[in-house]
Design goal:
Blueprint lengths: L12 E6 L9 E6 L12 E3 L11 E5 L2 E3 L14 E3 L3 E5 L1 E6 L13 E4 L5 E2 L10 E3 L9 E6 L2
Parallel strand pairs: 5-6
Antiparallel strand pairs: 1-7, 2-3, 2-4, 4-7, 8-12, 9-10, 9-11, 11-12
């Protein structure tokens, strides 16, 4: 699990984008391709996990609030209690709000008040990788289980 139930967002979510790769909730996803106009049902509006891409050349779309899974839906159904969506479906992104996540880069020890960035795996970090855009602010240090509270503020 990458997100705990302690979350706060009222108007900062976005459901405009599709995701065609599997992913775990709680990390940052980036824009891969954009649709035209409002693109609410345009499947070319894609987000991905920034695997291996330098954050300085990418644009953050938001914090992923659902698990993207690849299931054979003729044999089992999605677990809606775990916020699962099928590969290629629309995803919910947090653009403004507060989450408690364990998607924090390995070896990073954030402190409350530090600016939050993301690394090449979509994990939160307190280290600016060149000219990477910030995605918010840490509101706590990591606890014993590796979770920290992060205020997400994108765009």
């Amino acid at each position: 699990m990458a997100l705990l139930g302690d979350r706060s967002y009222t108007d900062g979510t976005d459901i405009s984008f599709f995701m065609s790769v599997t992913g775990e909730r709680g990390g940052i996803v980036i824009h891969s391709a954009g649709g035209s106009g409002a693109s609410m049902d345009d499947d070319t509006a894609q987000v991905v996990i920034p695997t291996g891409q330098a954050p300085s050349g990418t644009y953050p779309a938001g914090c992923l609030l659902c698990d993207v899974v690849n299931l054979n839906l003729t044999r089992q159904h999605l677990n809606y209690a775990k916020d699962e969506v099928q590969l290629g479906s629309k995803v919910t992104l947090l653009r403004r709000g507060v989450v408690v996540t364990n998607m924090i880069a390995t070896g990073v020890t954030p402190a409350a008040g530090q600016v939050a960035y993301y690394d090449s795996a979509g994990d939160f970090t307190n280290a600016d990788a060149g000219s990477a855009p910030s995605v918010g602010r840490f509101l706590s240090a990591k606890d014993a289980d590796g979770y920290a509270k992060v205020e997400v503020s994108i765009g």
